[in-house]
Amino acid sequence: MENSLLLTYLLLIPFIGSIVLLFIKAKKENLIRYFGLGISVITFLLSLVIYFNFDSSNSSFQFVHKFKWIENLNIHYQVGIDGMALLLLVLTTFLTPLTLISSWTSINKKVKEFTFFMLFLELGMLGVFVSLDLFLFYFFWEAMLIPMYFIIGIWGGQERIYAAVKFFIYTMAGSLVMLVAIIWLAIHASNYLGKFTTDLVELYSVAPLFDLSIQNYLFIAFALSFAIKIPLFPFHTWLPDAHVEAPTAGSVILAGVLLKMGTYGLLRYNLPLFPAASLHFASFMSILAVIGIIYGALVAMVQTDMKKLVAYSSVAHLGFVVLGIFAMTQESMQGAIIQMINHGLSTGALFLLVGMLYERTHTREISYYGGIAKLVPVFSFFLLVVSLSSIGLPGLNGFVGEFLILLGSFKSTVLNSWWYTVFASTGVIFAAVYLLWMYKRVVFGKVINPKLDDLTDLNKREIFVLVPIVIFIVWIGIYPSSFLNVSEKTSDKIIEQVLELPKAELK
Predict the structure, then answer these.
(1) Within a 10 A sphere around the Cβ of 416, how many other Cβ atoms?
(2) Quick check: is 470 in a domain?
(3) How far is Cα 349 from Cα 392, in angstroms, rounded to an integer?
(4) Do the strands 75-81 and 62-70 form a parallel or antiparallel pair, or are they unpaired?
(5) Closest CA to 390 of 352, 446, 421
(6) Contact 148, 254 (CB under 8 A)
């Protein structure tokens, strides 16, 4: 295939760009910013080439590139994408240049190092989504921790070191359990294949044949690592600290892309590799998801810090995604995939807006504000649109994902109870409560704080960052099929892998 190298080129661009960046003198801050932005834009443009060359009628992996990496262990460098990975890949390359533009003035120390870590982080995120070898996947999964640790630890808030260490330890602990599971999986698969391999496509054919007890252990190990990353209740405690202390660019990437790696992992690894165990744990995982939806929303309601409120809203929104995954119907699976994209856009935009306000006033306390609609009407407009999209207003992106997830969960024969849908739907109401209440207290009323009198509205650079996100928020809300069609074959295939293969195992 002439296109088979495109994904490798996509990984090489931020990698080479980050290395070249190290040779630019630190004093040339403007050159560094433009260079980093240029590399991220080129990466985005190449992802669009991949997007438009992708055949959405084909359920198999496309743009596959494979060669031997560690020959003695039969480990390959193997990359490829399906519809789900494609959407997340484009989301990553779309958000990265926007975050770099958003941090143009807010990041004014160690600009060279910051830009380097952002490009390195983009490389790690893209690597996770395109890997078709478990060892390669783990390599990128761990490599991604390093730049995020430094982004929080160097450019974060007052408690940045504590937040960075907590984030690193939580994720690392889960990752080590997954590493043990990968080794166990590859060794046990060798009994069937006659060789040690971490090739995901080969493992898809044999892992569903494992005994239910082994599948259960492996499922738990993988799911634990992914649950921490999502973060699924009760593994969410690192998230508010990391979000609050991270710089705006770090929060946007963390919410927009990093959290999706957990839900992506469940769809890519847990369900197809361990179908019998997935059915066995479906109710348990769905209960955790519903608790997360309600808990995240209730805790968000009592927050006094805008960033913390948005952080807890992520726990609730990602709970919807996990519920959609384990309902295992076509509607819920499609809803889960599109909701991953929706959350990346809406919550990413919320963090951008909070960051823009913080840059002007140096506080995120809701009580500090009030009546700013008169002072910053453009900001207030964008905050309203993004808040409504996060709530799930019909006509905006959030509604599509949540509706499909609730519809699919209601119809689910795997969950076999409509109570999941009933409790989950309360999360939509709670989301309206905490987001509209925040909006009312920040934007409406009288300007009671004299310090706000010189508050300035969004400048052209900030509007330029927000407009593309709002375009996609409205586009997905009005015409979702242009995105749902891309992932349809993928979600059908995952459901087929789960519901067809394990029947003999369950009898």
Answers:
(1) 9
(2) yes
(3) 15
(4) antiparallel
(5) 352
(6) yes
**pLDDT, position 92:** 92
DSSP β-bridge partners for residue 365: 305
**SS3 string of 175-236?**
HHHHHHHHHHHHHHHHHHHCCCCCEHHHHHHHHHHCCHHHHHHHHHHHHHHHHHHCCCCCCC
Instruction: Using alpha carbons, select from 406, 231, 365 the residue that is nearest to residue 311.
Output: 231
pLDDT tens digit string along 420-470?
Answer: 888 888 888 888 888 998 888 888 878 777 777 778 888 888 899 999 999
d(CA 20, CA 120): 12
Both tokens of 143, joined, read 């490599």
**pLDDT single digits (tens) 30-45:** 888 898 899 999 999 9
Q: Specify the pLDDT at position 128.
A: 92
Of all residues in the chain, what percent are helix, strand and coil, respectively (each to 5)?
Answer: 75, 5, 20
Query: Which residues, 6+ apart, have CB-to-CB distance to 259 below 8 Å?
Result: 229, 230, 231, 239, 314, 318, 343
| Amino acid (one-letter) located at 398 | G
> Number of folded domains in the chain?
1
- pLDDT digit string, tens, across residues 219-243: 999 998 889 888 888 887 888 888 8
Q: Is the pLDDT of residue 54 over 50?
A: yes
Is residue 262, in this structure, part of any structural domain at all? no
Structure confidence at residue 501 (pLDDT): 52
Backbone angles phi, psi at 448, to 5 degrees: -95, -15
Give me the mean pLDDT over the 174-180 stretch: 88
Residue 13, both tokens: 């661009």
CB 285 within 8 A of CB 326: yes
Percent of the chain with pLDDT over 90: 16
Residue 351, in any domain of the structure: yes
One-letter amino acid at 294 equals: I
The lowest-confidence range among 111-120, 341-350, 415-424, 444-453 is 444-453
Instruction: Give burial (CB, 10 Å; 0-12/13-18/19+) of 272.
Output: buried
- Domain extent, residue 294, equals 274-501
| Residues 156-160, mean pLDDT to the nearest whole number | 80
For the cut 80, the answer to whether the pLDDT of residue 23 exceeds it is: yes
Ramachandran assignment for 371, one of left (phi > 0), alpha (psi -120 to 50 degrees), beta (any other): left
Q: Which one, of 345, 347, 333, 344, lies nearest residue 404 by Cα?
A: 333
- CA of residue 238 relative to chain centroid, distance: 16
Burial class (CB in 10 A: 0-12, 13-18, 19+), 344: buried
Does residue 346 sit within a domain? yes
